[in-house]
């Protein structure tokens, strides 16, 4: 059963001042309907006992960390880092000046 009709998409297009063809209206109506069906399926998931999160990466203890664990490892030498640079000077990347200094 379709949730979004082609006429509703046409109305939204008019409000948005979009000039959509008949094929586009039909195409977008089907896409929006698919999105609505997906959201409806998510609503059916049993979330009993699941505490809401303040952030998608919130840990069980409530801490939020979006970074990986900081583990020391070998890094590139200056020579390795610069070996593909188009220009270099004094062991640094040389780039064109962009300010009038």
From TrEMBL:
GO molecular function: asparaginyl-tRNA synthase (glutamine-hydrolyzing) activity; ATP binding; glutaminyl-tRNA synthase (glutamine-hydrolyzing) activity
RNA-binding is among the record's keywords: no
A GO biological process held by the record: translation
Reactions this protein catalyses: L-aspartyl-tRNA(Asn) + L-glutamine + ATP + H2O = L-asparaginyl-tRNA(Asn) + L-glutamate + ADP + phosphate + 2 H(+); L-glutamyl-tRNA(Gln) + L-glutamine + ATP + H2O = L-glutaminyl-tRNA(Gln) + L-glutamate + ADP + phosphate + H(+)
Pfam families (UniProt xref): GatC (PF02686)
Family: Belongs to the GatC family.
Ranges for region Disordered: 79-101
Enzyme Commission numbers on file: 6.3.5.-
Subunit structure: Heterotrimer of A, B and C subunits.
Name recorded for this polypeptide: Aspartyl/glutamyl-tRNA(Asn/Gln) amidotransferase subunit C
InterPro entries: Asp/Glu-ADT_sf_sub_c, GatC
Keyword annotations: ATP-binding, Ligase, Nucleotide-binding, Protein biosynthesis
Physiological role: Allows the formation of correctly charged Asn-tRNA(Asn) or Gln-tRNA(Gln) through the transamidation of misacylated Asp-tRNA(Asn) or Glu-tRNA(Gln) in organisms which lack either or both of asparaginyl-tRNA or glutaminyl-tRNA synthetases. The reaction takes place in the presence of glutamine and ATP through an activated phospho-Asp-tRNA(Asn) or phospho-Glu-tRNA(Gln).
Origin species: Corynebacterium glyciniphilum AJ 3170
Gene: gatC
NCBIfam families in the record: gatC (TIGR00135)
TM helices/strands, residue ranges: none
């Amino acid at each position: 059963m379709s949730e979004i009709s082609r006429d509703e998409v046409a109305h939204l297009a008019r409000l948005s001042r979009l000039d959509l063809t008949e094929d586009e209206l039909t195409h977008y109506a089907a896409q929006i309907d698919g999105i609505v069906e997906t959201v409806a399926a998510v609503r059916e998931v049993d979330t009993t006992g699941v505490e809401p999160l303040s952030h998608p990466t919130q840990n069980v203890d409530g801490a939020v960390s979006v970074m990986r664990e900081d583990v020391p490892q070998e890094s590139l030498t200056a020579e390795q880092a610069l070996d593909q640079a188009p220009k270099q000077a004094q062991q640094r990347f040389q780039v064109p000046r962009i300010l009038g200094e």
